[in-house]
Predict the 3D structure of the following.
Amino acid sequence: MELNSESKWPKVGSTRVAWARDYEQNSSRKQTLLHRGFYNAAVVPKIANLDFVISSQLQSHAEDAAVALARFDAEVGQMVAPFAAMLLRSEAASSSQIENLTASPATILKAEYGLGETPNSALIVSNQKAMTAAIAVSGEMSVASVLTMHEALMAQADPRNAGMLRTEQVWIGGSNLSPHGAKYIAPEHAAVPELMADLVNFAHRLDLSAIVQASLAHAQFETIHPFTDGNGRTGRALVHALLHRLGVTNSVTVPVSAGLLKDTSRYFEALAKYRDGEIEPIINVFADAAFDAVDNGRRLAREIQEARMRWQTLIPMRVGAGATRVMENLLEQPIVSRGTTSELLGTTPANAQLAINRLVEAGILSQLGSGKRNRIWQATDVVNALERFAERSRRR
């Protein structure tokens, strides 16, 4: 879509700051010389009360994207309830993958249900918690609610800083020794509380369409970079909080990050252009991502529904039957163990195993690995559908 360069949005400025060396970091003499002296930290304009203009074509595109999200939310809201959990997992995994944190759907599911985890899968599960927290606090939309999102995300990975605005300088790119040579140096930490309060005021405006408001709030959040880590994932959780608060989504977390993941270079370039006063690229990126998310989500929904109908022909529905109850729960929890099944059914491990065996015989469950102890089974149809969703998200 052709973009309008006349947005009347202020550029991010800069201020010279003296770098205080961290003497606990070991570095060579050459490195010390390269990472000393002044650097330019960002001076981020406030946006709460800005008047601005975007092209009528982009405004229409953004509004159409919001309508598409709302329709999809209503459609899947009428489907089986567990589908909301699948979309949440897909969004958390896609948002994490933008930060190069990757894990297979099966690995993520194992971590989610305490059946084994890797470092990345644990972080992705934490991202699911951040998304859930974002929706839960969306009605409030305050600095405190953003801190709640971040705490849910980082409680396990960085408990000391989880839910806390940063008290040090941060930057993107370059060396971890100093901000010298970084692609972007965030504002000094003393400016962060006031900028976050201004961002929240922007989020409460009533004169903006949903995609415009959510995308600009996200870009401003990333420009402030209020945390020592987890800014990108928290910033994308903020988008979902706003979409929920504005009534675009009510039933599910639409995997917008899966749309962003299709072309991360374009997404990061749009964030850089935002700092140069160009707001239309980031709005356009999010509008396009919304359409991609809806298309991909519909395909996932269709595949899950088809799997469910096929299962019902393999195991006739009988109210109260253990295998039937486990089968229905597979749409929400596609990886099971004898312990989780026993807990679900409220029965003995032996009876739980009988239900699992029946589903294995029907071809609905298959064992992961070949071990005899601590065995785990997966609903292959569901896990494969999630794999295909992830593959479509990665494809440009």
About this structure: The chain has 16 helices and seven strands.
